[in-house]
């Protein structure tokens, strides 16, 4: 009967060591709300062109099938470290260590190196028994967690729909925040500036004017307009940023080249030239409603060029293409001065040992109060005038 809870063994629940174990057609039959990072091609590109296991991400995606029909899936990785997650748990790993217990391996449902909100429980579009299938998959995942002697299950940057299913199965919430820009049906960039305070409006105009004064030009390239040479130029910038800040780059040149070949509609590259020589670049991805700022780099410092490439050009693009949201990612209070607002993000966690689960839940409750206070304080220092402030919300975005 539709909507009734199936027996757990009525489903075929499998753990896959590669996204290629299901076909693209099967995976794309699952709802992902146009999130490009959850597409089969993006995940397959990661597995083929990025050494995920070297960075501590081993694919072990979970699927639920009825015969040959894929009903649901969870993008999933076994982790031997906490790098590339953007929801930091080093403190909890240290607590396990001091208790004489292993914290790794752990299971993480997320997109490697990509702190973007999205569904983690993916369902067939016509599936009517979603709660029952989700419960069966999560129960199976908990069994696998015990068998692998894994400390915990982590679902990072979850959508609101996922949070309800995970809470029902005993997961606890943890919150942090990001900075997003929201399109208020602006006619153009000047219309956007008109909604800001006079001080911020003048600041942005000065910063943009300085780009022209430095004889810097911006070229926007999309999809198959991005040549192999363009990617090589950008990749050098990307690597230089990692070498200065974080060490070894995560993505490869082949990964970026495959994106514009396999997902041309989702990729945009902003390149800056000075006297016809490339000096900087920023890489974004997009859906039908949102743009996601991902990486940038340069070969020398130029005043305000980071703001121009990563914020003003992308905001202008979103206005022109009528995209609703620009996700500028984690960190960076300077984004507030340029029209971005803090938004709360949610991750869900389950710990195998009840004594740790209880202590961590108390810690997360205290942390949530601090996060809410910080988000409210940040929001009060936004760039908007009082009229548009009344229209903007700091609530957690839906994905």
Number of helices: 12
Compressed to H and E, one letter per element, the order equals EHHEEEEHEEHEHEHHEHHEEEHEEHH
DSSP, total strands: 15
The assigned structural class equals: alpha+beta
Average pLDDT taken over every residue: 93
Write a structural description.
This protein is an alpha+beta fold and 399 residues long. It is 37% helix and 23% strand. It has twelve helices and 15 strands. It has helices at 24-27, 40-49, 90-98, 130-147, 160-168, 189-194, 198-213, 228-245, 253-262, 305-321, 354-379, 386-389; strands at 12-16, 57-59, 61-66, 69-74, 77-79, 106-109, 122-123, 152-155, 172-182, 216-222, 267-274, 277-286, 290-298, 325-327, 341-351. The strands form two sheets. Strands 2-5-6-8-15-9-14-13-12-11-10 form an eleven-stranded mixed beta sheet. A four-stranded antiparallel beta sheet has the order 1-3-4-7, covered by helices on one side. Helix 2 runs antiparallel to helix 9 (253-262). The longest helix has 26 residues, at 354-379. The chain is globular. Mean pLDDT is 93; it is low at 1-8.
